[in-house]
Structures are given as structure tokens and as C-alpha cells.
Design a protein that fits this description.
The structure holds 2 protein chains of 2 kinds. Chain A is α/β, with parallel strands linked by helices. Chain A has 12 helices and 11 strands. In chain A, 44% of the residues lie in helices and 20% in strands. In chain A, strand 6, helix 7 and strand 7 form a beta-alpha-beta unit. Chain B is mainly α. Classes of the chains: A alpha/beta, B mainly alpha. Chain B: Keywords: Membrane, Transmembrane, Transmembrane helix.
């Protein structure tokens, strides 16, 4: 008996439908997950992302592919991610300021609302540094020295540090002039060469500081840096500002609930993994691990704080 | 002393030599293939290096960094298509030599120059790291601005047939270098809301398009226009041998270029491309009567290739002496070391002497391996001249497309690369030098950054230059060089891009 075309297509449709519903029911992840790093290979974000990916892959039972989509301070990777399907197979690792600060400063292809915040693993030990020969113990000493001439320059690296320094300068009643640089390593080089008075560094300074070749004037976070217990925070010194920059893993917004839950579990577990804890210590990152709802709250508070900071530094 | 011997022993362990060899092989291949270059090779290698011991990982990465520079000369000489941006200068004399049937001679000079430059740079690193690093630290924004002004004079030196058109192309290169976020204010400039342009026009897209793709268009036009011979003159023959008298004539250029390369490698932000331009400009300036730079002068090949290889080890000086990365390769080494629990820093020598001497040993081993691989590869690659253009053109074009895509995984970069390929072709047709364009484009960002830093630090006061005698000296050299290059009769200048 010849099968009518209508019947044939009906059978095909039924078969396809069966396949799709089956795949929808199958448990995520059933294929490799990709993490795009917003910075070049070899940087802190890259190193941490790769280490976390390894642990997460073991827990998920699927390979996790790490690729570098560097550029524009992580904005290129974030822009691409914002357009991807929210199926849990595409994540981005970048610094939290890529999302909490950058869209407030310039026109980018995404807003913070485009993402689900999966995890934060590690906080950068941002600091103001100087040469020990000046004899300054904290930023207060440096600002007192700046009073004499009314101005002081510092090696700057980000829009963020320019706002922080504006706030500090206002409080100290001096002028802090940013000298632009292209990388964290260049900041340290300029300070060590004695070409600038101060420097803002997100972490490249650490080995030099440990060796006593650089003095740390203040750390910028809410808490002191674990490896530098004697260095006060900006808030402790009375400047009333702080900057917290985290290594952040994000997914497109609207993840299915079960995928979000599983991501939350595996990343939280990865954050406690001895290999990751050890890596954070070696890279002098503060051991901060947050996932799920608490992280979303933290990110929102960062966004609000930066909005205030932008307003006050205008 | 004990640690020195232990370290050298580690360097000579079979597993270290194996990874040096693998690194050199990968680097060489990447260097030879136009479109794929050093950053791409290192990016591929980093994840692999995570699984090796610290010394093996560093040996592997060093092999890549060194050999990709040496391999870049091959296609520059044989098919006028630089495998790496720094080999653009190698084309100027290398390709005319190949056309005159002296491909092997040129390839050998390039290889020996690369290895000698590399060894001298490495020796400087091993013996003088600390004093050289201190010297380099003293070069602040003011001094760097002066160096960049000197670099600007290379545009005049390499301007081609017409000084005016050469300068125009160089200025256009500088203009293209201004695209991206303003370093001081973070304001996007000429980016047309394209986030992909925030960090500037991607170097890879520009160099691959301008140098490799446009060359393929030019060659395709020749093939279509008239049935040219499959390639240049046949390789081999007595004229193509590199005898001792020939090599002796070139040797002073190699030594002088090693020093230029080492000096430029010490300063962060300059890099191998600037080094090969500088070294070539100097060699040309010191040319004896009868030496025709730009028309197939072996010294031209030697100058370009030696300097760019001396840069690589020299750029590790700040890393090993002070723990500061002076180049992309050095930054990647830091990552490889940290992942293995070694924190590069000022105390590295005291804390990890065995590892450091192991790395130094591995660098020496890499030079030897490079010589062997390059010497064997040369025989194979010389056969490239027999491959008909109808095969080379589509293959290289495909590599260009793949290379542009790989860097940022974006189609936008591929489009840019093609755009610059067409632009390069038009510049060639109307005799605007692609090389001076490239100089402008490469030095632009550092020139702008240094000058703006210097203006802030000196508060714009010219009088404060008196505190920077080194900068004044470099500026004086720049003025002399500019006058000299501008007064050079044009007919002795290199002939555009050789083709």
C-alpha cells in the first residue's frame, strides 16, 4: 500500500517531536560547555577561569572548553554572550567591573540585565603603591606630602581608578593627576623606575611588594588583603570609597531553573576545591566565592555604588 | 655554582630538549605560514603548557617564541609574503635575491643571522640581566618619547621611490593607530560604536591584510595578466651558495644588528617589528658603495632577521631581573610559571636558582635546535619556489582568512583583514609604501602613549627636559637621522616592496 505524503510527513513530524522532547527532558549538560574568557591567555582571569573549568568539568562529567575572546576590557566577550541562547552551554569569565561599571561609562552592546550571574571566584587585591624610598607608610602620608606642592601624579590603568583617585584627592584637598598606562605591568614598571609618584595596580605589584621593593599605601577593597594584613583599606583611612573587582562567571539571562541550580552547585563546590583555593592564594587573590542569589545581590550593590561614585566624581 | 650546574643539567635532560624541539617545530611552522603568527601560536600553547613541569612548559614556550621569528623569513624571501609582521623588512632584499636565483643564500643568511642574534641576546640576558634591567627601568616616558621620535625617522629611511608618498603612507599608518579608546579619558575614537575596535584596529588584521593578502592579489594579477613562470629562477647553482667570503662580508651587519635588537628588546613596548625596521635603517645608512639595499642585498636580510630574533631573549631581561614582563611573550611566561607555583619577582634568582639556570640553558638549547630545524627546513622550504603560484595564492589566501578569524574568533576581524588587503593592493598600484604605513601603524600607539605620559609628568614644561639627558641625546640622534634620511638621493632608496 502506498503511503500518502500527508501520512509520511505526519510520521516524520511525530518522530522529530519525540526526539526533541526527549532531548529537552535529558539532563543538562549533554555536550561540552564553553567558557569564553574576556581577557588574553595568561592573565589572572584566564588562569583562574581555566583552573575552575577543569574542576567544573569533572563535576559535570562533560568537557569544559575555555577559549579567549579578549578585548575592550572583557566587553567583546560579554557583548557576544548577551546574544547567545540561555541554554547553559555558553558562559563568559571576566572581571566584574566589565559588567558593573563599563556599561555605565560608555555605549556597549549589553547591560547588566542581560546576564545570569553564575559565580564569583576570587577578588583582585587592588592597591595604591609607591617606592619605599619616599618613606610613606600609608596613603595619608603620601597625601600629606602632596599638600606641599598641591599635586601628585600616579600611574593609572582603568576608568575605575580615575574615579577612586578623584574621590581620594577631593577628600585630601590635593590634585591627583592620572598618568595613563596600558597594562598593570607597566604601572609597576613606571613606579619602580621612579617616573611617577604613585601607582594603581590590580595585582601585578604583589611579588614586588612582598619582596619589599614596593610599599603598599592602601588597598581598595572593603576588606584588607589576606597576604598584606598591615595595609589599611581606603575606608579605614577615611576616604569613604571602595572598589571591589571580582573574577566573574556569567551566562545569558533566562537560564532554565534546573540548569541554573546545577551551575550554582558545581561552581560553589569548585570554589572550595583545594586546587582553586591554592591558586587564589598564589595569585594573591582574596578568597571570595559567591554564587546564585547572594551574588546577584552583590553585583547589584556594586552597580549602585559605582553609579554613586560616577555621580560624585563629576 | 652548584645550582648553575644542576640547572644546566635539567636543560639538557631529554624531556626538556624534547619540549624545546616541539616548541621550535610549532613556532617554525607558525612562523612560516603567513596569516598565523606568534600570539596565535602562544595562545594555542598556553593550555598545553599547563600540564607540563615548569621547565618543560617554559622550554616549550621559549621554543615557540624564538622559532616563530626565525620562520617568518622563509615566505618573505621565497614568495614576498612575510610570515610574521617583523619579516616585512626581510622582503625588501630577500625577495629580489630569490628572484635572482639566490633564494638559498638569502635563507641561510636569515637563519644564521637569527641564530646569532638570538645567542647574543641570550648571552646579554644571562650575563648582564641585572644592570641592563636597571638601565631599562631608567627609561621613563620622556626617554621613550624620544625613542619613538627616532623610530618615526625610519619612515623617511624606508619611504621607497617617492619620499612624499612614503611619508603620506606613514602618516596614514599613524592615523589608523589612533582608532580605539583614548588612553587618558577612555573615550572611543573613530570606532563607530564597534566594540571590536575599542582596543584599536587589530594588528593581525592589518599586517596580514596589508602584507600577505595584498601580495596574493598582486601575484594573482600577474598570473592572470600573463602566464609568468611558475616561480622565480630555479634554486640551486653555484651563485646560490653561501661561501665564507660572502658570510664574512655580512657578519659585521649581523653583530651590529644583534646589539640593536638587544637594546630594543630591553625597552618594553617596542618589539621585534620596530627592531627590524631600526636595524635595517641603520645597516642601510652604513652601506658601502656598491651595496644596493632594496635590490637584493644580503646585508638587508641579515639586518632584519638578526635584530628581530635578538629582541626575544632581551625582552626577558626585566622579567628575570625584576619580575616585570617586558613583552607579550614574557607575560605569557609569567603565566606559565605562576600556574606551576613559581612567582616571578625580584627574588626569583635567590628562590629558584636551579630553575632560572635551567631556563637559561633551555634558551641556549633552543638556539641550537633552531639551527638544526631551520637548516633542514630550509632545504624543504626552498622547494617552495617550484610550487606554481596557482597553488600558492589560494592556499595563502585561505591561511590569511583563518589567521584573522583565530585571533578574536570574529568575522569582523576577517572583514577588516580583507579590507586592508584591498587597501594594500591599491597602495601598491599607486606606489604608496606599505612598509612605511606599517611603521606608522606599529609605533603609533606607543608614540602617543609615551608623549602623553611625558606631557603629564613634565607638566608640559620644555625646561624639564634638562633633567632627562638621555632623552635629549636620543632626540639629537633623531634629528641627525631625519636630516640624513631626507637628504638621501631617492634613486638609492629601496624600491617600494621589491615586487
Amino acid at each position: 500500500m502506498p503511503i500518502s505524503p500527508v501520512l509520511r510527513s505526519a510520521v516524520w513530524s511525530a518522530a522529530l517531536l519525540a526526539v526533541f522532547t526527549a532531548s529537552a527532558r535529558a539532563e543538562w549538560p549533554e555536550k561540552p560547555v564553553t567558557i569564553a574568557v574576556g581577557f588574553a591567555a595568561g592573565g589572572t582571569t584566564d588562569v583562574v577561569a581555566r583552573a575552575v573549568a577543569e574542576v567544573v568539568a569533572k563535576k559535570l562529567g562533560q568537557p569544559v572548553v575555555v577559549e579567549n575572546k579578549a578585548g575592550a576590557g572583557g566587553a567583546i566577550a560579554a557583548t557576544a554572550l548577551a546574544k547567545m541562547p540561555a541554554d547553559g552551554y555558553n558562559l563568559v569569565a571576566t572581571t566584574s567591573t566589565t559588567i558593573t561599571l563599563d556599561p555605565q561609562l560608555m555605549k556597549l552592546g549589553f547591560t547588566p540585565a542581560d546576564f545570569t550571574y553564575v559565580a564569583a571566584v576570587g577578588e583582585f587585591p587592588e592597591a595604591f603603591i609607591a617606592l619605599p624610598k619616599h618613606g610613606w607608610k600609608t596613603l595619608n602620608d603620601a597625601m600629606a606630602a602632596a599638600k606641599a606642592t598641591g599635586r601628585m601624579n600616579y600611574a593609572s590603568n582603568t576608568a575605575l581608578d580615575r574615579m577612586i583617585s578623584t574621590a581620594v584627592a577631593k577628600k585630601a584637598g590635593v590634585s591627583l593627576v592620572p598618568v595613563p598606562t596600558r597594562s598593570g605591568a607597566e604601572v609597576v614598571t613606571q613606579v619602580m623606575g621612579g617616573h611617577v609618584d604613585l601607582g594603581y595596580s590590580s595585582g601585578a605589584y604583589y611579588p614586588q611588594a612582598k619582596a619589599g621593593e614596593l610599599a603598599v599605601m592602601a588597598v581598595l577593597g572593603d576588606k584588607r588583603v589576606a597576604g598584606l594584613p598591615d595595609v589599611p583599606t581606603l575606608k579605614e583611612l577615611g576616604y569613604g570609597v571602595a572598589s571591589v573587582n571580582l573574577i566573574l562567571f556569567v551566562a545569558p539571562k533566562g537560564l532554565p531553573a534546573d540548569v541554573a541550580k546545577k551551575l550554582d552547585e558545581v561552581f560553589a563546590a569548585a570554589g572550595k576545591d583545594p586546587a582553586i583555593v591554592d591558586l587564589m592564594e598564589k595569585r594573591s587573590l582574596n578568597n571570595v566565592v559567591e554564587t546564585g542569589a547572594p551574588l546577584a545581590k552583590t553585583i547589584q550593590s556594586h552597580i549602585d555604588d559605582f553609579a554613586k561614585l560616577i555621580e560624585s566624581s563629576k | 655554582m652548584h645550582d648553575v650546574l644542576l640547572g644546566l643539567g635539567d636543560a639538557l635532560a631529554p624531556v626538556t630538549i624534547l619540549f624545546v624541539f616541539l616548541g621550535v617545530l610549532l613556532g617554525y611552522v607558525i612562523g612560516v605560514l603567513p596569516g598565523l603568527n606568534r600570539p596565535a601560536a602562544l595562545a594555542i600553547a598556553i593550555p598545553i603548557s599547563y600540564y607540563l613541569t615548569p621547565l618543560a612548559a617554559v622550554a616549550f614556550l621559549i621554543g615557540i617564541a624564538k622559532a616563530s621569528g626565525a620562520g617568518g623569513a622563509t615566505t618573505a624571501i621565497l614568495i614576498n609574503t612575510p610570515g610574521e609582521p617583523n619579516a616585512a623588512v626581510t622582503c625588501l632584499d630577500g625577495y629580489p635575491l630569490a628572484r635572482a636565483g639566490k633564494a638559498k643564500q638569502a635563507l641561510k643568511v636569515a637563519l644564521y643571522g637569527s641564530v646569532i642574534g638570538d645567542l647574543i641576546g641570550t648571552l646579554a640576558l644571562v650575563l648582564l640581566a641585572r644592570p641592563l634591567a636597571t638601565l631599562a627601568l631608567g627609561f621613563g616616558p620622556v626617554e621613550m618619547s624620544a625613542v619613538m621620535v627616532l623610530a618615526l625617522t625610519f619612515i623617511a629611511a624606508l619611504a621607497g621611490n617617492s619620499l612624499l608618498r612614503g611619508l603620506a603612507a606613514g602618516s596614514f599608518g599613524l592615523l589608523c593607530a589612533t582608532v580605539g579608546l583614548d588612553v587618558e579619558s577612555g573615550t572611543p575614537r573613530l570606532t563607530f560604536d564597534q566594540v571590536a575596535l575599542f582596543d584599536g584596529v587589530p594588528l593581525l588584521a592589518v599586517t596580514v591584510g596589508m602584507l600577505a593578502l595584498s601580495e596574493m592579489i598582486i601575484q594573482a594579477e600577474e598570473v592572470l595578466g600573463k602566464r609568468t613562470e611558475a616561480a622565480s629562477a630555479a634554486a640551486g647553482g653555484d651563485a646560490d651558495r653561501l661561501g665564507w667570503p660572502e658570510f664574512r662580508r655580512v657578519l659585521p651587519t649581523i653583530l651590529q644588528s644583534s646589539i640593536v635588537g638587544t637594546a630594543i628588546g630591553l625597552l618594553p613596548g617596542l618589539g621585534p617589528t620596530v627592531a627590524s625596521f631600526a636595524s635595517y635603517a641603520l645597516a642601510k645608512r652604513l652601506a658601502k658603495p656598491g651595496e644596493q639595499f632594496g635590490k637584493g642585498e644580503l646585508k638587508g636580510v641579515a639586518a632584519a632577521e638578526t635584530a628581530d630574533n635578538a629582541v626575544v631573549p632581551a625582552s626577558f631581561v626585566p622579567l628575570f631581573a625584576l619580575g616585570l614582563p617586558g613583552s607579550v611573550s614574557a607575560a605569557i611566561l609569567i603565566a606559565a610559571l605562576t600556574i606551576h607555583g613559581v612567582t616571578p619577582g625580584p627574588r626569583l634568582f635567590e628562590e629558584q636558582p636551579r630553575l632560572i639556570y635551567g631556563i637559561f640553558g633551555a634558551m641556549m638549547v633552543a638556539a641550537v635546535v633552531m639551527l638544526v630545524v631551520g637548516r633542514i627546513g630550509l632545504l624543504a622550504f626552498a622547494q617552495l619556489t617550484r610550487v606554481p603560484a596557482t597553488i600558492i595564492i589560494p592556499v595563502v589566501t585561505m591561511l590569511c582568512l583563518v589567521g584573522a578569524y583565530l585571533e578574536s574568533k570574529s568575522v569582523f576581524a576577517v572583514g577588516l583583514m580583507v579590507g586592508f588587503g584591498l587597501l594594500g593592493y591599491l597602495m601598491h598600484r599607486f606606489d604608496y609604501s606599505r612598509v612605511t604605513f606599517l611603521i606608522g601603524f606599529v609605533i603609533g600607539p606607543q608614540l602617543e602613549l609615551s608623549v602623553r605620559q611625558a606631557l603629564i609628568i613634565t607638566e608640559g614644561k620644555v625646561s624639564s627636559l634638562s633633567h632627562h639627558p638621555a632623552a635629549l641625546a636620543v632626540l639629537a640622534v633623531a634629528v641627525v637621522a631625519a636630516v640624513y634620511f631626507l637628504r638621501t638621493p631617492r634613486k638609492a632608496a629601496p624600491e617600494g616592496e621589491g615586487a
